[in-house]
Amino acid sequence: MKGFARSSLALGISLAVMASANASDFADMDPVTLRLAHVVNEQDGFHIAAMKFEELVEERTDGKVDIELYPNASLGDERTLLEGMQIGTVDMGVITNGPVANFLEEMAVFELPFLFPSPEAAYEVLDGEIGQELLDRLSEVNLKGLAYAERGFRNLTNSERAVTSPDDIDGLRVRVMENPVYVDTFRELGANAVPMAWTEALTAMQQGTIDGQENPVNVIHSFKLYETQDHMTLSRHTYAPALFVMGMPVWNALPEAAQAVIEQAAQEAAEHERQVNAEMEAEQLAELREAGMQIVEEPDIAAFQEAVAPVYEQYGEQFGDYLPRIQEALK
């Protein structure tokens, strides 16, 4: 795992740099407030990551950089937040990878179905050369990529029936993110894929205008989806990163010392969230079962993989050399 070793070495060097930073580096800095927004609630992993980031940045800048958190889509949905960052009306956010890919198409390569066999494999790629290269490329669309937090492995829920194979999905109206890879993945599985913002999806599930959705366990738990969704399948069909991302107008206005703190704090907060997610998943699954959700733990993954093979044929070339490079790194 050379990539992991490299990222660990880089983290070690960054931590050493941070250890040498102290309050005096910020003595002459004018105080600045950064508004960090996300679209989920305060029980969600995004908020856990955001709180850790807030704590680290304020401590290491001696309070000169104040982070204000705006959860629950209070500043808009994810596309709105990203557009705001581009023009400087929103400072930063923790944003699901899918909407980010609408701004830099190649980011969607990470979300090809069944690409990553485990969280550890995903972290090695994201924290290594390939992931960092794509973070840097966000500057092409006036965004500053800071670090990869985590949405996690996504699983299917629905209100109609147990799903153990693609045949069971046929005809289900499934909400997916506004991202063509997700839309086409679920169309290949036989679903009526309905792209919509998360805030709209919650209402649509309550009203019964959609049958299901797909998200990691932590989202299914924190949004109490058992109230509208009777069935969950641990399909783990896609690993979804999330990003700590900032608008370039705001980033460029910060002094270098503050930039260094922010970048390192984002990485540490992301790793903290990953760890919390892993620790919480078993407990969350148990609580979902207690709430009445029927959970299929071992679906026919081989059948799902076969069904989505056309997605690789359709999108492989669109991502340039990123897909073969990731596949090589995973060997």
From TrEMBL:
One GO molecular function term of this record is:
carbohydrate binding
**Which GO BP terms, alphabetically?**
transmembrane transport
**In terms of domain of life, where is this protein from?**
Bacteria
Among InterPro entries, the record links this protein to:
DctP_fam, TRAP_DctP, TRAP_DctP_sf
Record keywords: Signal
| UniProt entry tagged with the keyword Signal | yes
Q: Which residues form the signal peptide?
A: 1-23
Q: Does the keyword Signal apply?
A: yes
Q: Name one Pfam family in it.
A: DctP
Any one GO cellular component localisation term in the record:
outer membrane-bounded periplasmic space
**Under which name does UniProt file this protein?**
DctP family TRAP transporter solute-binding subunit
Origin species: Halomonas alimentaria
